[in-house]
Design brief:
The complex is a heterodimer of chains A (412) and B (261). Chain A folds into two domains: 172 residues, 3-Layer(aba) Sandwich (Rossmann fold); 227 residues, 3-Layer(aba) Sandwich (Rossmann fold). Chain A is 53% helix and 10% strand. In chain A, the strands form two sheets. In chain A, strands 2-1-3-4 form a four-stranded parallel β-sheet, sandwiched between helices. A four-stranded parallel β-sheet of chain A has the order 6-5-7-8, with helices on both faces. In chain A, strand 7, helix 16 and strand 8 form a beta-alpha-beta unit. In chain A, helix 3 packs across helix 5, helix 7 crosses helix 14 and helix 8 packs parallel to helix 11. Chain A is globular, with a radius of gyration of 21 Å. The mean pLDDT of chain A is 95. Chain B has 261 residues and is an alpha/beta fold. Among the domains of chain B are: 91 residues, Nucleotidyltransferase, domain 5 (2-Layer Sandwich); 70 residues, Nucleotidyltransferase, domain 5, CATH 3.30.420. Chain B is 38% helix and 21% strand. Chain B contains nine helices and ten strands. In chain B, a hairpin with a 5-residue loop joins strand 2 and strand 3. In chain B, helix 2 crosses helix 9, helix 5 runs antiparallel to helix 6 and helix 6 packs across helix 8. Chain B is globular, with a radius of gyration of 18 Å. The chains are: A alpha/beta (412), B alpha/beta (261).
Chain lengths: 412, 261
Amino acid sequence: MTQLASAAALKSVMANYFSALGQAARDRSAPVAWCTSVGPAELLRALGFQVFFPENHAAMLGASRRANHVMPRAHALGYSQDICSYLTSDIGAFRAGETPLATYGLTEVPKADVLVFNTNQCRDVRDWFEWYGRRWGVPVVGVRSPRYVDEVREADVDGVTVQLEALVAPLEQVAGRRLDPTALSEAVRLSRRLSDLWGACLDTATHRPAPLTFFDGTVHMGPAVVLRGAPEACDYYEVLLEELESRAGARHAAIPGEAFRVFWDGMPIWGRLRALGSLFEEFHTAVVASTYCNSWVFAALDPAEPFRSMARASLELFIVRSEEPKERYLERMARFYQVDGLIFHDCRTCPNNSNTRYGMPQRLGDRLGLPTLVLDGDVNDLRCFSDEQARTNVEGFVELLADRGATARGSR
Amino acid sequence: MATTELGLVTAGVDVGTEYVKAVVVAEDRRILGRASVPTRGYFQDRAYEALRAALEDARAGEADLAVIGATGFAPDRVPHAATRLAESVCHAAGAWHHVRGRMTLVVLGGHEPQVIAVGSDGTPRNIQRVRRCAVGVGSFLMFAARHLDVHPTRLQDLASAATAAASVSSYCSVFSGTGILERLRDGASLEDVALGSMRSIAERVVEIGDLDPPVVAAGGVAEYFPGVLRAIESLAGVSVVAAPDPIYTAAHGAALLVRPS
């Protein structure tokens, strides 16, 4: 895999983000809010908070392969090995006095003045935040979202909108300022712009050969996660989009000799991103797209009605939906990216983002006429992942794709 | 009737998954004799064999025995045992005999690791265990020794010469065993795999619960694999001291607990 030139700009954007956070926590120049990855970041930005995303921090622990060293510290508190390994990694790291933010000059995670969750993705985020809330004696507020949503109904949007509006008063109290509606609209506008740019970047993978893979996406999605509502993220994605379009125009392949294209559903396996990227490259297989990277594309955001559109965006999210809309979405994605097969990651500690346990791979495979592969693993707990098993499974899967290709060519 | 000058003695038999241990104590609580035999074949045969050997070590006979306390994995298989005792209670009593104060007792036998908060009176206040799929820690180390082609008692020497622990970590003993084979196939040194195996056990212990000092370790793993204790120290940031003759802690505790008051 050749690294994208935009990686240098990415490093700079992320370094500035963490530096500002660290400074705010140190000299109290701005209040610090912790926010779940698809929580109401725009509202927090509009109120002047520096916003920290512990899921991003946990992913860094996974990617740096420190997660398994620190998780036992959280298990020792009674947080099970079966629950979110983001949660156990992050709390374990806190107890061990470790953080990968040291790379950015932070000796510890920035202490929160308030923690804001949205349970649209899972209950674990709330339990996670409440641990810190109890420890620091700071408020934990959030949205208790409907889950397994079929069609997004106006009644559901109403319910979440009311909850988002109810957050304003307690957050104003922590921020020490009133919410400026214009600032909120601007944050939502920037967030929507960011979302559109990020979506356009991901869409370049429809080209043959694809100029980026899922593995590139997991790295370059950083600003889309942590800088929603901030202008610098838009600037970054304009640079990235230009590079990707240029690559696509020049038929520059992310995977040289791209022979097969597959879709990845589920969480990344952070500690094995490089290994898996190399494995697929060895088999000339481009993992062109994923539900994960596309989860930070919020088409519903609308600065004209910030609260309502934030509510709708949070409910339209893939992870919040029931099986049927998820399957429809995956069908659309499979056709849009013209994939030859689908890989489902059965993420041991994240049942909410594993779509393998109620027959979906079989149903979709039959309906689309495409091979599917279920990979056992975990987002952070590498005890649940076997390199050997993954290699054997991917090898067999690619052989299947090759056989189908040969059959299809023979029948023409 | 007593056949020696010892007076009536009591015995504790701990039927473990790897070894059966027996301890004989005098009325004044002194250890008079002890013995262990590998757990193979019928439990009752090995329990009897260990008991006989411990009595012989104590220079006592069966007629000197006032009572037998049985504990461990198969206490019901100890012939003539008057009392069946919980393993954690026996471990706590055995360790308390030496420490004489409150402690966190880490039990590392062949089967199920436990972390026991022992009160100042020697009784357990709280007992935490690993979950079902992580049992068999001692047996796992025996498996490791077999695949590293050393006698189990040499596994510690091997680990001492490691440069870095090879990753064999899993919360499932079976998967950890597979991890050993995979690391060997990948070319990891025997030394690094030996250390990785010990670290894997330590990780499972640390996640059971917080280890409040003083921390004392008992069980066969503490006896033969002190590297596991060092790994626990490194992970949990606390000092861990092995109880004297830690493989006998539960048998000793059983013998003490069944003494006629």
